[in-house]
Amino acid sequence: VSTISIPAMTRESKKLARQLKRVFNDKNIIDVLKLSNFTRYGIEMPEIAVWISENLSEGFSAIENFANWQYGEFENYKKLMSGILSG
Fold it and tell me: Which residue ranges of the chain lie beneath pLDDT 50?
């Protein structure tokens, strides 16, 4: 099982990171981003982690273990991620 290690965050950063992580729900991952893998046992979901800096102006979202890496059109992913994060 893979895990993502992120640096420590302040309380405000954790709160904002939690809100951003909620944006990546199952529907967005499966239908919009198409990052899941369908197996005979069900849907294999990627692990997602969000880190926000202390000044709340910078950060990153890490997506690990998603199935369609080799088929990814990364410019398309940037547009889809921007659309999801903008609301």
Answer: none
